Automatic annotation (TrEMBL):
Signal peptide (residue range): 1-26
Residue ranges of domain Fibronectin type-III in the record: 24-113
Keywords per UniProt: Signal
Pfam families, A to Z: Glyoxal_oxid_N, GO-like_E_set
InterPro entries: FN3_dom (IPR003961), FN3_sf (IPR036116), Gal_Oxase/kelch_b-propeller (IPR011043), Gal_Oxidase_central_sf (IPR037293), Glyoxal_oxidase_N (IPR009880), GO-like_E_set (IPR015202), Ig-like_fold (IPR013783), Ig_E-set (IPR014756)
The protein's name: Fibronectin type-III domain-containing protein
PANTHER family: LOW QUALITY PROTEIN: ALDEHYDE OXIDASE GLOX-LIKE, SECRETED PROTEIN-RELATED
Top-rank taxon, per record: Bacteria
Length: 587
């Protein structure tokens, strides 16, 4: 007798009281699996028509499915999992008429066992392989993570100026809900060292690329997640290798810096306009002052201008309308912070971090108003770092990982310890220690589940010895019980959010945990490369009312505070524990 028949015979006994002719049961519409801790995975699915019971099976580490449980409920907590292991699940409905087809879950990786200091430092998961050295990484509005290096996975030809090596890019798309990778290759442009943002319509826009060495391509490219396809945009006036892209409040995109087809600084910013054409900011040349043309740190200010925060020692506002105009220049802190980083952690407030060969110092900038920028020293990190990553967390803290002494393609002097800056206390706290160096060409992104994906580093060809085609997930302190008991915290559940938020409008969120919710945050989807995340932005929203299962929240008042586009929305309880984020569009 086969196992399916045995199950049905067992059910026959259980269900004898309600026996009768059953139509075939419907397959459960979806199976959701979420990790509650290193020991528990919660499964849930909607009731299927004509189901009398459900049968659940589990696959461990990609192995065959094996029976796990049966029952009449539409949820199940699997408490037999191990830490830091990959699982997937499937469920089907049963009745007298037989069994439905299987509904499969996405795959989950259980988090690592917490350390006693996890609530203070967070924890890194085990390093797992990645198809390439992730030097560029963007979170797309459908929740997938796109990453690439160049035409190949590890940079064998990055310095070769033969055009044959610069006609396309090997691009990876990863779904964090299924852990599946699939190719999304570009066949026109070597996207190594482009700038990139997620547009307000959900497409990725990338400008520039590599022609070998420091020579920049004049290409622009769109990737449309809805169609799963790349398309060329208009060619720029000149090439750009290492440009920064900035999404503007009017949905245009500012393109600044980079080096041209001859490897010389490209001195004229351009703007992608809403009609898809480019406008040259011929009145805002950048070759007349000390702008470092490699990924300049540009930010939209609360007054709707753009601010240059570095990495050179020059602070300056840019008016991007018309042909553009730079304002007066101000010194920052006397340092050239090449390959450091800068984060706008709150509208108008910027944390400038490290860089310039190993430097542990920080500088705080305030550009809330248009006058002279506020400049004051911030607290120093425990470690000097260059070539590191700086990522805004769901609670507005800044997580810094990786970095070394500034040497490219070298893992000597690697800083493995992470650090976390809290804007409330203006202090750094020690973070967990990673197992893999993340230096030049590494990236990090906040994922919708509130963890941080860290990856990449190297990309110097077959023989260089410092390529890191792998990733580690960082579990921040807010995912653990604040009492130091070494347990994962119970997370508030966000069960309903509008897909779009209108500026200044009040909207309603659904949460069974509404009474315990203390704050709501928006974090723009990240787009990171070379130590600078040019799309991330954090905003705390005003919580205006609470019901037993609803929250009334006010959207940002102006596109100057948060440009139109895609954001992760989190609700956080009174202990600071965030929900899983929902991707919403601000318009
Ligand atoms: Cu590079």
């Amino acid at each position: 007798m086969n196992p399916g028949k045995m199950i049905l015979l067992g059910l026959a006994v259980v269900l004898a009281a309600c026996a009768g002719p059953d139509p075939a049961p419907a397959k459960p519409a979806v199976l959701e699996a979420i990790t509650l801790s290193e020991r528990q995975v919660r499964l849930s699915w909607p009731a299927a028509a004509h189901a009398r019971a459900y049968e659940i099976e589990r696959s461990t580490a990609g192995g065959a499915y094996e029976p796990l449980a049966q029952g009449a409920a539409t949820a199940y907590v699997d408490s037999t999992v191990a830490a830091d292991q990959r699982y997937s699940y499937r469920v089907r409905a049963l009745n007298w008429g037989g069994a439905s087809g299987w509904a499969e879950s996405g795959a989950v990786i259980t988090p690592p066992k917490p350390t006693p200091r996890a609530h203070l430092e967070g924890v890194f998961g085990t390093a797992r392989s990645w198809p390439l050295v992730a030097t560029h990484a963007v979170l797309l509005p459908d929740g997938t993570l796109m990453s690439w290096y160049s035409q190949d996975a590890i940079g064998n030809h990055r310095d070769n100026t033969d055009p044959i090596y610069h006609t396309g890019t090997r691009v990876d798309l990863w779904n964090p809900r299924t852990l599946e990778h699939r190719p999304a290759n570009n066949s026109t442009t070597d996207l190594l060292c482009v700038g990139h943002v997620v547009l307000s319509d959900g497409r990725l826009f990338a400008a520039g690329g590599n022609l070998g060495g420091t020579n920049g391509s004049d290409h622009t490219n769109y990737y449309d997640p809805a169609r799963g396809a790349w398309a060329r945009g208009p060619d720029m006036a000149a090439g750009r290798w290492y440009p920064t892209l900035t999404l503007l409040p009017n949905e245009e995109v500012l393109i600044t810096g980079g080096s041209d087809a001859q490897g010389k600084d490209n001195p004229a910013p351009e703007v992608l306009q809403r009609d898809g054409t480019l406008r040259l900011l011929s009145n805002a040349r950048t070759d007349t002052w000390d702008l470092n043309h490699w990924y300049p740190w540009m930010f939209v200010t609360p007054t709707g201008r753009v601010f240059h925060a570095g990495s050179s020692n020059r602070l300056r506002f840019l008016e991007p309308a018309g042909q553009g105009a730079w304002g007066e220049g101000y010194p920052r802190d006397g340092k050239n912070r090449w390959y450091g980083s800068a984060v706008m952690y709150q509208a108008g407030k910027i944390l400038v971090i490290g860089g310039g060969g190993p430097d542990a110092t920080t500088t705080l900038l305030d550009v809330s108003a248009d006058g002279e920028p506020g400049v004051r020293p911030g607290p120093s990190m425990r470690f000097g770092r260059t070539h590191f990553d700086a990522t805004l967390l769901a609670d507005g803290r800044v997580f810094v990982n990786g970095g070394n002494d500034g040497e490219k393609f070298s893992d000597e002097a690697t800083v493995y310890d992470s650090e976390i800056w809290d804007p409330q206390s203006n202090a750094w706290a020690p973070g967990a220690r990673a197992s893999v160096p993340r230096n030049y060409h590494s990236t990090a992104l906040l994922l919708p589940d509130g963890t941080v994906w860290t990856a990449g580093g190297g990309g110097c060809g077959e023989d260089c010895g410092v390529n890191h085609p792998n990733y580690e997930i960082y579990y921040p302190p807010y995912l653990f019980e604040p009492d130091g008991s070494g347990r994962y915290a119970r997370r508030p559940s966000l069960t309903g959010a509008p897909r779009t938020l209108g500026y200044g409008q009040r909207f309603t969120l659904q949460s069974p945990d509404a009474p315990s919710i203390a704050s709501v945050s928006l974090v723009a989807l990240g787009a990171a490369t070379h130590g600078f995340n040019m799309n991330q932005r954090f905003m705390k929203l005003t919580l205006e009312g609470k019901g037993s299962a609803t929250l009334e929240v006010r959207a940002p008042a102006s596109p100057n505070l948060a440009p139109p586009g895609f954001y992760l929305l989190f609700i956080l309880d009174g202990r600071g524990v965030p929900s899983v984020g929902e991707i919403v569009r601000l318009e």
